[in-house]
Amino acid sequence: AFRALSDTIALEEAVAKADQMTSIEDTLMVVTADHSHVFSIGGGPDINLDIYSPDDTGSDGKPYTTLAYANGPGCKIDHSPDYTTAVIFISDNIDFLQDAGVPMKSETHAGEDVAVFARGPMAYLLTGTYEQSFIPHVMMYAACIGENKQHCASTDAA
């Protein structure tokens, strides 16, 4: 989870840099993902709680990690007393594996739609979630590439 969230911050920084280097008047910027993951933020922890720390609100009285995966190598079949100690003392380690519901060698992609964010010319064409294959068509349309260019300003000399 630490690495996933660090990647999210890096994406935010990259988008901010691209925003500084381009103009909203002539550059369509599209931010999306090619798939989701089975990563979740569970419960309703105190807003001041360190998101990497365990939350002790489980009905069995055992701590659980606020960040979790539906599947992956972090699955703990037996929540023994050693598990409680491990969660408390290891969860701040970059290599700590958050809880997972199903044991697997690695976490998998998920199937829900992903959000599409856009700004610039024709950004209004991307305002929610779409089939992945639709996005490049919108980008081509906005850039006046390929067919269907009736909306483009003509640059041909008469």
TrEMBL record:
<dbReference type="GO" id="GO:0046872">
    <property type="term" value="F:metal ion binding"/>
</dbReference>
<dbReference type="InterPro" id="IPR017850">
    <property type="entry name" value="Alkaline_phosphatase_core_sf"/>
</dbReference>
<protein>
    <recommendedName>
        <fullName>alkaline phosphatase</fullName>
        <ecNumber>3.1.3.1</ecNumber>
    </recommendedName>
</protein>
<keyword id="KW-0597">Phosphoprotein</keyword>
<keyword id="KW-0862">Zinc</keyword>
<dbReference type="InterPro" id="IPR001952">
    <property type="entry name" value="Alkaline_phosphatase"/>
</dbReference>
<feature type="binding site">
    <location>
        <position position="109"/>
    </location>
    <ligand>
        <name>Zn(2+)</name>
    </ligand>
</feature>
<dbReference type="Pfam" id="PF00245">
    <property type="entry name" value="Alk_phosphatase"/>
</dbReference>
<dbReference type="GO" id="GO:0004035">
    <property type="term" value="F:alkaline phosphatase activity"/>
</dbReference>
<feature type="binding site">
    <location>
        <position position="34"/>
    </location>
    <ligand>
        <name>Zn(2+)</name>
    </ligand>
</feature>
<keyword id="KW-0479">Metal-binding</keyword>
<feature type="binding site">
    <location>
        <position position="35"/>
    </location>
    <ligand>
        <name>Zn(2+)</name>
    </ligand>
</feature>
